[in-house]
Amino acid sequence: MRLLRKCECRYTVDQSLEVCNLCNHRFKTTYPPKFSPHDKYAEYRRRMKQEAKDRGVL
Ligand SMILES: [Zn+2]
């Protein structure tokens, strides 16, 4: 499993990096996702959008 770390502006799997050269923040370890958080939030967004549509908000 890849160890994913993030700073203030991006994610990296490069373990040699300690500080981001773009935002100067330290890379912090992220918790390993049990399932894809991207898919989870995408699904959530889709649902919210659909509900808004159903109510005539959008
Ligand atoms: Zn950064």
Task: List its salient traits.
58 residues, alpha+beta, 3-stranded antiparallel sheet, 1 helix, elongated, binds zinc ion
Task: List the SSEs and their pairings.
Blueprint: E1 5-6, E2 11-12, E3 28-29, H1 37-55
Antiparallel strand pairs: 1-2, 1-3
Our estimate of the beta-strand percent is 5-15%
Structurally, the number of domains stands at 1
Tally of alpha and pi helices: 1
Taking all residues together, what is the mean pLDDT?
A: 84
- Record the strand order, biggest sheet: 2-1-3
Rg (C-alpha, Å): 17 Å
State the end-to-end CA separation: 41 Å
Sketch the major β-sheet.
3 strands, antiparallel
- What helical percentage do the residues reach? 25-40%
What does this 3D model show about the protein?
The protein is of the alpha+beta class and 58 residues long. The chain has one domain (5-55). It has 1 helix and 3 strands, in the order βββα. The protein has a 3-stranded antiparallel beta sheet, with no helix packed on it. Strand 1 and strand 2 form a beta hairpin. The longest helix is centred in the C-terminal third of the chain and has 19 residues, at 37-55. Bound molecules: zinc ion. Zinc ion binds at residues 7-10, 20, 22-23, 25.
